[in-house]
Amino acid sequence: MVDSVGIRRRLFATRSVDSLVADTAVEGQTLKRAVGPVQLTALGVGAVIGTGIFVVIGEGAALAGPGVILAFVLAGLACLFSALSYAELASSMPVSGSAYTYTYATLGELVAWIIGWDLILEYGVAVAAIAVGWGGNVNAFLDATFGVQLPAAISQSPPDGRFNLPAVAVVLLITALLALGVRESARANLVMVVVKLAVLIFFIVVACTAINTGNFTPLLPNGSDGVVSAAALIFFAFIGFDAVTTGSEEARNPARDLPIAIIGSLLICTVFYVLVSVGAIGIAGAGTLAGSDAPLAAALSDGAGITWAAAILAFGALVAITSVVLVILYGQTRIFFSMCRDGLLPRGLATLHPRFGTPAKLTVGLGLLISVLAALVPLSEIVRLTNIGTLFAFVLVNIGVLVLRRTRPDMPRPYRVPFAPVLPLLGIAFAVYLMIDLPGSTWLRFALWLLAGILIYAFYGYRHSRLRQQAPADPA
């Protein structure tokens, strides 16, 4: 009978960094290194800039007033500390899987399974929810440009409609693109990123010509609490920069390119968010933004008198959301791929297509499942699980940096978090601070999802793990 110490050592046994990297060279499971720093940075920007700036800015203004500008800065700062930790681990371990892989090498298999299971939920729900938003933006674009709309029965998910056809269409289209190859997907994403940044630059330039400084007073009508509440909500607008790390195994020069892409994409998005929020408040005021479902279009229409801008912004939102679907679905397939390759999920799904070099079978399966969710399942409540799942991953990644600094001090680190352990500890503190502000119902659903995951691990993952079928693991 195995004693409690033995069980604990097995549950929290780690994979060595060398063995994780060696797995990337296994025949039939080796992803192509085909992506450079510009495309990786575009993946980060593509994942971040979406409905957050086109929609969430209005909800943030309702909580913080003009202080929504500070809320964007606070949310960006909370992400920056974690981005530095992601950059160190990604450059040191150029392996697909993001936080799942990093946790496997630092905190052990059980914790890695928990975060991997958490990321499956985070990315899957995010893709389905964003696809539903894409369907709504199709109607907004058609209405603003041509004065027509698709019937609600086929353009909205229940309970407002019967079947969300646009959401299904975009998920299946992106699934096909991802199955064809990472190079093709990255190029398509780069084009979409250029388009949506151009739309936001248009908004910023127009806003600069009509700013009313009176709209910025009082700056904090609801005090600092309003800013914090808005930041917890706006945090959703920053989710996605970590998706860059899921492409570690496909980066041509991961040691150099990944830190550039992770930190660069977050900084680019934060600058755009702050400039857009300043412009929107300056020309229309917080009240106008808070009372609109399309706050940027309302700002140009009511503040600058440009009524035709709604069509441009609707098109920009459509392109922005498409690129988010692409990058987040890409990230989920790579995390799932890593877990299958490690044996915690069926290893047969980790095989690559002989021609395209992608986990095509896995990609198509996930795409079909998510398209069903987007078409038929009401997602308004469980979308909040995306926030708590991301923050939980941030906590573990920052802890992972601290653990590896202690257990593997001589490990090559092409990029190192400056001022460690101070900045990783700040990353943990900011993430926990924002998690506390989430409602109790979100915590309950998150706990139930993790409980289901632990049961799957106990009855399948633990028994089939490669960690127990090959060489002895590193002690945790």
UniProtKB/TrEMBL annotation:
Q: Which InterPro entries match?
A: AA/rel_permease1 (IPR002293)
Q: Where, by residue number, does the polypeptide cross the bilayer?
A: 40-62, 68-89, 110-134, 163-182, 194-214, 226-246, 258-286, 306-331, 362-379, 385-405, 417-436, 442-460
What is the membrane topology here? Multi-pass membrane protein
Location comes to:
Membrane
Q: Which UniProt keywords apply?
A: Membrane, Transmembrane, Transmembrane helix
The GO terms describing molecular function are:
amino acid transmembrane transporter activity
CC annotations in GO: membrane
Q: What's this protein's name?
A: APA family basic amino acid/polyamine antiporter
From which organism does this entry originate?
Catenuloplanes niger
Taxonomy, top ranks, is: Bacteria, Bacillati, Actinomycetota, Actinomycetes, Micromonosporales
